[in-house]
């Protein structure tokens, strides 16, 4: 055996929640911060884009909660789902790194688009 079933389920939950958060953050920023300044591309949902964006963000929030629930009962230190701890730790490290260092030197990818 490579480890406990609870540990495997926690790893799968962390990976799933991480992918969902990476998917939802740009959508959340689009429907909030960039609502007025965003220029739609050739494929656009038109007037439904904000509604669909909010549905996607709410779906990710729901899935994040569901994947953070305990996988076995009764909940003990052996059966506790550590997904919220792991995801919270990664988010804390990422945001701290951005605030303390990366925002000063990170420039993003070079774009080669002619206007």
What's the structural blueprint in terms of helices and strands?
Elements lengths: L4 H27 L17 H20 L14 H23 L10
What would you say this structure looks like, in words?
The protein is mainly alpha-helical and 115 residues long. It has one domain. Helix content is 61%, strand content 0%. The chain contains 3 helices and no strands. The N and C termini lie far apart (58 Å). This is Amino acid permease/ SLC12A domain-containing protein. Its main location: membrane. Keywords: Membrane, Transmembrane, Transmembrane helix, Transport. It is found in: Membrane.
Secondary-structure element string: HHH
Number of helices: 3
Number of strands: 0
The backbone outline, from C-alpha atoms, is extended
Report the uncertain regions.
none
Number of domains: 1
- Broad structural category: mainly alpha
Mean pLDDT across the residues is 86
How much of the sequence lies in strands comes to: under 5%
Question: What is the distance, rounded to the nearest whole angstrom, between the alpha carbons of the first and last residues?
Answer: 58 Å
* Rg of Cα set: 19 Å
Largest sheet features: none
- Percent range of helical residues: 55-70%
Membrane topology: Multi-pass membrane protein
GO molecular function: gamma-aminobutyric acid transmembrane transporter activity; L-alanine transmembrane transporter activity; L-glutamate transmembrane transporter activity; L-lysine transmembrane transporter activity
Subcellular location: Membrane
Organism: Nymphaea colorata (pocket water lily)
